[in-house]
Write a structure and sequence with these properties.
- 4 copies of one chain form a homotetramer.
- The first copy, chain A, is of the alpha+beta class and about 350 residues long.
- Chain A folds into 2 domains: about 240 residues, TIM Barrel (Alpha-Beta Barrel), CATH 3.20.20.140; about 80 residues, Immunoglobulin-like, CATH 2.60.40.3090.
- The first copy, chain A, contains 9 helices and 20 strands.
- In chain A, helix 2 packs parallel to helix 3.
- The N and C termini of chain A lie far apart (about 70 Å).
- Chains in contact: A-B, A-C, A-D, B-C, B-D, C-D.
- At the A-B interface, helix 1, strand 1, strand 13, strand 14 and strand 17 of A face helix 1, strand 1, strand 13, strand 14 and strand 17 of B.
- Strand 1 of chain A pairs antiparallel with strand 18 of chain B, so a sheet runs across the interface.
């Protein structure tokens, strides 16, 4: 007899902990056959050198509409350990109930934190972080491998460890050859490492981009100004931990960083195609006007390539998020030609945007 | 043979007038049986004393996602007439093609602009504004009536015309008795006229709230800070001029002004009920936790009424737009009681919010 | 061999935090003879039930341009104590070096956290928080008094403890009579307690308003939308801890909460007078135009009082922060009269704004 | 009897526009010996194909804190001329009183609007725009020259006129040789023309950047997101029309566009040096920490150049506006070396940022 009455309880409310959470997920379309999950696999809390309690990281992810995160405390660097005690598994344990209630996927991870070489690596999909705390870094990697972790190299060109140039050391070859390196951060925090992107393409490493956040997230990102943390886009068969792992193992990822998408052409082209919808085409005498709607929360920066004097259109054009654009192509000669442009902020190789070409006749 | 190729023209673009328009309509739910249309029936351009070209008003409305507007130039006050010539119908004529292309309903109107009494009145759903330009205000009203216009009193308590108190003059009784006054602005620009709201309820006048905008809209409203112009919510059977007129004639309106909704209880209660969705209820030992989702873009300000010591809940609570809230009601005695609150920003009478009461047993 | 490597590692981790800090202090003018200091005396961190590391609180205060804060952990409620150990003095000790480097005054405090009566109290200007941890609340108060603390009642009408009405219990009379209550929170977090304001005026208690922040500050306040935490304005002879204490002891405070200033008329009038500068007066035939500049970051909401039919001016007028306003007063009879208005958001008593009256002849 | 009433009515309508104007000037420092004036010399209103009344342009400039503007209507293109009549001098005449009251310098100008070649040119510092309305463009230029105008080429690479590449036609050589071209827009609206920047450097033309605004300014620029119109920075001996003209004649300008400054090294270096203040230097064992304060509203993007393995510092670093930054430089060898970086958003040549080098010993 309670349920019906409670159903009438329309807008209720109350008491000690009225929590309001506004969600602002950036709309990024799914691609053919896969869900596009937004993930951050590199995060800190007071259990290493981060500045917030672990549950805060879940609420941040929830507000940003992230699908999955990993809290990856430094194993070897815990500056607050005099006051904050507990095992390397504690941050995960504390955050897990909040993650469950918020429907954020939480993946257990740790950061192996060494001087260069080999530098810092994250191991995620761990069972027991504590077992990775070893004196010899090779033993830490071996233990991560034993736990069937997914392991990736963090911020390969970090100023502090690679002050001059971004180098691949012989130790990285060793790690790679032993099957201890599955991915690499192409973006960490606010820095994009072009060399790492090339390595990922050449050596078939999974491409990752993560926030490595230490502060409360809003301290480093001005959400009101449209900023967002770097995320790894995972093209997964489902929104589950297992499906994320499968996608990581098969390199189906891209990185979303500032207004850049970074990844293989096959994925970026699908994101572009699934973002833009043609809503109207009207033929003029010597022109065509096309109205398009950008359904996504992404910006696309177009730049004319392979000029054709007979087809007059933008030199550069910015397609803003969630907006409608009416664009006219003028013909100065015959009513045909090609429309060629590059989407300069969709990087399919270092320095190279996604190229598009359409026949107009 | 062109169409298939053009269909491939995915994201095209171009040339002289690439117009980007981002739409930011405030989500206000429909009510049972009617669409909730967002309208502004009081607007100026350079064809009287406004400061923009008529097409600008359409683009402003489009960006805000308004359904219908009326450009209502002063018949008797055209300070720019030395430079801006043309009949009282010109602003409408110039704006109409843009309105059509933007799918904004444009209703022809004019403002009868006299000193007090009777002050300023808008006549909308006109055929010919020019015919209203008469020396005697009674003739202007009579002509509007002949054209079957919908006529309403503007800003009844405007400082400039009613400096001391908001009075209903004998001329208003005359106008009302002759069937020349169908509605009244309860809100004009940024001012809410409490007396006008009471008159509307007592005399069965249609309730209106309009911007009376003269500047570019962004000069007067800081959209980034969440501000919006005052609008008349019209509960119409369809999104057509005819359905708007039918709803106005039958007084199915409310006003949305700052964070206030102003109108009859029957409409405001439906907006509240259709905005708030219960997504979860969990029973504790001595408490209930209810999770609600506010689907609308409206804020609701709740205030406890009719206190019951056995039921512990918020004194005041703000339900923000598009947000999820988990709220706990604690029982100090038996697990029942009543939950009573007023939604203080949904005004059903001057100074009186919408009252809600729910049984908890 | 490892230690040197780790030492190098740590140095590197610390060395590269290039920290950018933008300061956005709200401009509130000094009053005659005193500096207006912006303070928050009620703040939590992970050392009780707050969610950030103590140094974060300093950086938050720094960015907002606060002059002084007090971190006031619950003595009796430490839900994270399994993981976060350390004495009741730890949060202060950890935050102090950052406070010094940021030039934020940090005042040692603690929160005595009991069920009602007597509820929660803050004791600030403590020497040793640890000594206040007593079973009997009377002993905690007595110890605070022994340390010469400044003690105030927190959130007197908190829903959770005073569900029905805001009551002054006999225990509060006891505390007051023993000299254990020097002030009272008229605003806590986002709630203004009108009864507490009246008590403060009647019983000569110091008026305080504080954030009681637990989350990262940006989670609860949307700074981009112009929101700010509640602060206690302290009118002090200098920007020093001693001068703050002297001002608190002599009740020279007010509260800044949302767009309200709450306090005694003598202080609010000076803030109003020192915010508004008349930059020009021009005489028309039947009017005066006054141009004023609001030098402060405060909004002032004016409402006409004591109407005079011969002097025509605004019914309501909002003076925005850092803005210039040209206002015309029209005379319908003789060119004189009085300009009377209330500043409705400067509360000098519960429900009563600051009244202003100027002769115009 | 009516006239007096109407007269009263008009007075009333005018009297009560209580105008609030918040000014948000971007802080750009003066350089040695000159004031840095922020100017926009390319603006439209309803008197050609703009969409606002001329006074709106003054209020926009006032709110943005601009020092000087020029309203430059098309002589040959007036699509609203059926409704908006009046000479080519009218926009100036209407705007002038508002400009005077707002203390915005208004410079009379016109746009000579021809197909390519020679395209569009602005002539400013005119006496009589009407006299420039000639069939032959050479006569328009000659008349502008007779009036001692300052003449510059607008948007030299505009898509609509130069669809493929940005070309300098023989007509431009003719114009240049006749002394009819004194400057060139390196930035127009939102587009930067790299070729034009090179021409300006090679041919000693004055560098200009202007908005060419047609819409209400807020429609094209999201001020809340930190956007601003392109402006010409004029380094003038005083804030007067004469001093602006003298500076234009002597090429003392730069362009501020998005986060770019574009101009000669001598001016950009002074702006950088006068923006950044070193507030503290502290010596560590193997490091120096430098605290700098960016006093300006500009962002500076630093990028390491000429790497030195012994000096470890940022690869890239962004100095935000009005912010304090603590930067640590670590020495791995001897405690000296050079700090080399490029300010990549201060363009002293096409594609080349301002280079800085400091000795650290």
């Amino acid at each position: 007899m309670k349920p019906p009455k409670l159903f009438l309880l329309i807008a209720v409310l109350v008491a000690f902990t009225g929590q309001a959470q506004v969600q602002n997920r950036i709309v990024i379309p799914d691609i053919n056959g896969y869900k596009t999950l937004q993930c951050d696999f590199h995060i800190h809390t007071v259990f290493s050198d981060g500045l917030v309690w672990p549950t805060v990281r879940i609420n941040e992810a929830y507000r940003e509409g992230l699908d999955a995160i990993s809290i990856t405390e430094h194993l070897e660097y815990r500056p607050f350990s005099k006051d904050v005690t507990g095992s390397h598994n504690r941050a995960y344990e504390i955050a897990k109930p909040t993650a469950d209630s918020r429907n954020v996927i939480l993946i257990k991870g740790s950061e192996i934190t060494r001087s260069m070489p080999p530098g810092h690596f994250n191991a995620i999909f761990l069972n027991d972080s504590e077992a990775l705390a070893k004196d010899d870094w090779r033993e830490s990697f071996a233990e991560a491998k034993r736990q069937n972790a997914f392991i990736f190299w963090n911020h390969p060109g970090w100023d502090a460890q690679q002050p001059d140039t971004t180098l691949w050391w012989k130790e990285h070859t060793e790690i790679y050859d032993k099957g201890w390196m599955h991915g690499i951060e192409v973006v960490n925090e606010k820095t994009y490492y072009e060399e790492a992107f090339q390595w990922a393409l050449d050596k078939k490493l999974t491409i990752l981009g993560n926030s490595d956040i230490h502060e409360p997230i809003q301290t480093d990102y001005d959400f009101a100004a449209g900023e967002h943390r770097a995320t790894t886009l995972v093209f997964a068969k489902a929104r589950t931990p297992e499906a994320i792992r499968e996608a990581l193992d098969n390199r189906r990822t891209a990185v979303y960083h500032k207004d850049l998408l970074i990844g293989e052409e096959q994925y970026l082209r699908q994101i572009f195609d699934n973002s833009i919808e043609i809503t109207n085409i009207s033929q003029g005498n010597n022109s065509i006007t096309v109205t398009v709607f950008n359904k996504s929360g992404l910006t696309f920066k177009l730049k004319k390539t392979a000029h054709d004097k007979n087809v007059v259109y933008f030199r550069e054009y910015e397609v803003k998020p969630h907006s409608r654009h009416s664009l006219t192509i003028r013909f100065t000669g015959a009513n045909d030609g090609k429309l060629n442009f590059e989407v300069t902020n969709l990087l399919v190789k270092p320095g190279k945007g996604l190229h598009c070409s359409y026949n107009l006749n």
